[in-house]
Amino acid sequence: MRAPCHACGRPSHARKMCPAHYQEWLRRRDGVRQRPGTARERFEAKFTIAGADDCWIWTGAKDKGYGRFNISEGKTAGAHRVAYELYVGPIPPGLHVDHLCRIPACVNPRHLEPVTHAENMRRRREIFTSCRNGHEFTPWNTVRLRDGSRRCRMCRILRLREFRQRQRTVVPLE
Question: Is 103 found in the same domain as 53?
């Protein structure tokens, strides 16, 4: 036997309500899907603590390695930004949230720091210890540009050699 309607006592149809009260409930909620729990509860259900470095790895939706969190109908935000705002406080205007552990899926607020875009990009560049071709960035082999970026001196030398070789092999038109 079904449980009685919680409002009137008649036999229940769905969600412990009779057909009349169930239809009324459907009209009142305006078709908006109800999310279970608070935003913090939903957030905490979507990460796992991994490894000795205590990274909180995001297991929910991701975009280019970074976690995405659904904050309201149709609106998503970076999971690391939501983590910082939930556990630390608001992100100052104009700042980005940088991962100190260098793991994009990490949402541990102790591994997050608000920094300027320039500082975030500088830190990102420092991760790489060699150029694309595998030449190590040493003081001799590194050329620093005005914007702070690095260029490999060995790659430049090799490009010049190839260019000069192509110039020597060009046959003049008669």
Answer: yes
